[in-house]
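Still learning. Any example?
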Amino acid sequence: MIRPASLIVLACLALTACGGGEQSASGAGDPYAGLDAEIRTWRADLEATNPQCAIKVAGKGCEAFEVTCKGARDLTAADQAKGVTGKIIAAMTFRSTSAQEGGGEPGSAFAEFSRAKGAWTRAEAKGVNLTTCAAF
């Protein structure tokens, strides 16, 4: 009979063999490595620059930030010529904290992230469906 602790060890070994080990943890080979950090930067930029977040209450202008979708975009020949290896569209929702601005007023933002030479860049994007990230 196999003990539960043995099953856990076997499961961990199997995951490591399938690429769930050190390589994935370091981001090597992960086409989306570093994207989460870039999305956190985007969130901070929205808090600092979005007009809806301008009036601060207890140091916050907006709250309840949520990435509602992320969707891969096809690379064009021009993208590939620039060394772009990945493109993602993302939608984020949030709401204002200011009672003066109607408190709890919902807002949304859209960004396209491109990865080239291992680094992500961000550009504003046209609105997309908040659930599927499909273009309107």
About this structure: Residues 1-26 have pLDDT under 50 and may be disordered. DSSP finds four helices and four strands in the chain.
